[in-house]
Amino acid sequence: MNKAFKKLGFIIILFMMISCQIFALDLGLGNKSGFSQLKHIKADNWSIVGKNIVVRGNVYIPYGKFTIYADRAVVNTESKDFEAIGNVRIYELLKKKTMIDLNKLAELSAYPQSSVDILGYKIDPTGKQYATVEVTYRGNMFKAKKVTGNLSSGYFQFVDFTVRYDTFTMRAKSGTRKPGGEITIKDGEMSSCSYLENNNEHYSVKCSSATLSPQQTKGFGISGSPDLGDHSIWARNCSYNVYGIPVLWLPFIHKPKDESLGLFQFQGGYNSFWGAFFLLSKRYRLSDSPYSSVKLMADYYTMRGFGYGADADIVSEFSKTRILGYGLYDMKPYETTEDVASHRLEIPHARYNVRINNVSHLTPRLDFRGQFQLLSDYYFLYDFFKNQYNNNPEPSTYGAFEYQFDRFTASIFSRVQTNNFFNTVESLPTFRLNFPRQELFSNIYWEGQTSIGYNSMKWREFDRPRTLGNKVDPKNYESTRFDMVNMFYYNLKLKNFSIIPRAGVRLTYYSRSSEQKVTSKDVMALCAVSAPEGNSNATVVNYDAKGGGKVRFVGEVGVETSAKISRSWLNVRNAYWQLDGLRHVIEPYMNYTYIPDPSVDRDHLYFFDEIDRIEKQNFVRVGIRNRLQTRRGDYGNEKIYSWFSMENYWDYHFETNGDLGHVGDFATKIYFKPTEKLSFLTFFSVDASGNDRIEKTDTEGGNSNGLAIDWLNKWEVMAHYKPTEDINLFMSYVLQNPYTTHSVYSMGSNFTEIQGGGVFDQEYTSLVQNIRFGFGVPLMPDRKLRAEYEFFYDFQAGYMRQQQLRIIKKLHCWEAAIELSQGQKRNEDEEKEYNYTAMMTLTLTGMQTPLKKINREQVNLFTHGMKQESGDK
């Protein structure tokens, strides 16, 4: 019995001694991050010498979100000083929860340096499956022969180390990391090509010294959460190397935050208009708040000269600004548009494009929108900025303030002519009040608009005198214009049927007018003579300023009736077509408008816009709208989505107009976008009366190929299909016969239009028929090689106007593309002329994990369609 008590006492004493030792060790390690952090250390050999933990062989030290591997290490349990020697590796482990579809899940699961835990599945109302996952993957990484420092403060010294950040890799002979996150290195090399880790990099930047400064540090020490991807770099005494060969010496290099080192784009090739060309651009991120970046451009064209410029973006919470400046001394300014050398506008050698756009939300109710555009000549955008030219060949300079009141909107708008080779209606300025439709009293509604401004019509100024016709150019004119319109509505609803009669009046005052009568034909002649190309032989009749002030009254009466019939199928579900229920809505409608002759003939009023061209209207439109709708979004947050829509309408005019009879056009517009992968739009106008046709004249070459459908005024089809991420198909077809049509105008009602342009005097003399088709497909199973082809065929000209082939190859840290294109046109002697382009594009790509790629793709889905107009060449 005594022996048993003695054994029990010995065990209790031994347990107390061990507990005291562990307790003392725990105190030495600190309360919060002591033994609880270091007790998971693993190694082949483990010993404690005083307050030091000494480990050897396959050392594993987890600390915070980092793990440290080494051949041997010493850690002081009290100060947290440590030394790791031999094959030292420090990894950052990151975790992120996200929701992805099953295809992205398979892609993410195949990534070797990540693990995916599936937390659950979700099926949206259409039947499409999503997975909620937690992804654990390796983030930033350090490798070194030796690391000394402190785990708590985050101070480290590295010897012969390699670092991989989010977007680039770096190695150096020595380096230091300060507690605030700043890193300094000596004799370093950096690259966004991860092959730098294996001394096989495609390109790199060597430097004698560099400083990496964090933009934001959320905590101290390696156990804190500094964002190592948020470093900017200043490097000194640098050389840019390609496959280890120095090609360029630079005194310093700056890498802004969140940008892969050295990312830039290079384009080179041959173009019939430019000769051999080399285009180099690089974007720098300058600041975060406000966000600002600038893309520097340096170009060389063997036939044109050197070009240079900058494209900057500044975005804050309430403002967005874009500044573009580009210029060159053009050695052959007429090379691209040599056929205009005999026209009336000249092209200088010094050419430039300066543009500033700004949108600002000054207060919750006050907005500003403005643009400044300055060009050297009319043809510069066409020659070097084709995207801008296609969007708007004659951009204007303007500024507008708009304030939203509770019941109306007040705005002040100014437009000036900064390029005298553009036709510009100057507004110096115009003040406007807009009153949306609002109820005055029982079922009586009113809407109105009042504006006053000083308008000045500035016709294009030519460099050469006019030699045809009566040799007279359009003459500028100006007038103060006050305009006020008031419309009243009575809303009568009968179950699914509504009747809305309307009546209103417009009063317009002009401080000046013309005694000389200028007819619609004369206005068309003014426009023809002011065209930038050609030399019209039309006879110009100009306005004079002898008519004095004029007050014009325009009245309107009308009625709009419509019905709404619908039927729903709530149980319709289809994941492919993204259907969650289906509703068919039918809306037949009728709209009658009568405007008597205005009190002042428009032939004596200055022409600034459609307000000045109002003429008598007496027509009725009969139409029907069909819509198929479904639900999109989660339960409880569903939104109605128009899956398919179609509108058909027909106009009948109670009075004839010249050769035009009573029967107007029959038009149809169809829009179909069931998913993000497929969209379809078509509209056509049928010449129902047979009186709208104009004698056909071939626009080029005397051919009349393609479809011969005389009863169509215009038909346009646009389709886009993207079945997978790498397969893309699109086409568009346009057929337009020469035709003229009645004007359809109302001061108090809106009408669907098939053909854009002015409301009055709609006459289209061109015979147009062309098709554009293109596709993009992968050429290899790994999808790293793909091809894109596009052609544009003109049936009326009888030949392929343009075709283009691009081959794109994704390399390890590059994306290379080869583009071949051919253009064709006829000269004044009806001979075919060809132009060719052969171009190679190289773009440096940064390192990114599949998770980052997937997240970026998801963000792009939300930002698609909100991009600003491109300023790229």
Descriptive account of the structure:
With 873 residues, this protein is mainly beta. The chain has seven helices and 42 strands. The chain has a 26-stranded antiparallel beta barrel. Strands 1, 2, 3, 4, 5, 6, 7, 8, 9, 10, 11 and 12 form a twelve-stranded antiparallel sheet that branches. The chain is globular. The termini are far apart.
List the helices and strands and how they pair.
Layout: H1 2-29, H2 35-38, E1 45-49, E2 52-63, E3 66-76, E4 81-101, H3 102-109, E5 114-123, E6 129-150, E7 156-164, E8 169-177, E9 183-191, E10 203-214, E11 231-242, E12 245-255, E13 265-271, E14 275-288, E15 291-301, E16 305-315, E17 319-329, E18 350-361, E19 366-375, H4 380-384, H5 386-391, E20 397-404, E21 409-416, E22 424-441, E23 444-458, E24 477-490, E25 492-494, E26 497-510, H6 520-529, E27 550-563, E28 565-574, E29 579-595, E30 617-632, E31 639-653, E32 663-675, E33 678-686, E34 712-724, E35 727-736, E36 739-741, E37 762-764, E38 768-778, E39 785-794, E40 799-810, E41 814-826, E42 832-844, H7 850-863
Antiparallel strand pairs: 1-2, 2-3, 3-4, 4-6, 5-6, 6-7, 7-8, 8-9, 9-10, 10-11, 11-12, 13-14, 13-42, 14-15, 15-16, 16-17, 17-18, 18-19, 19-20, 20-21, 21-22, 22-23, 23-24, 24-26, 25-26, 26-27, 27-29, 28-29, 29-30, 30-31, 31-32, 32-33, 33-34, 34-35, 35-38, 36-37, 38-39, 39-40, 40-41, 41-42
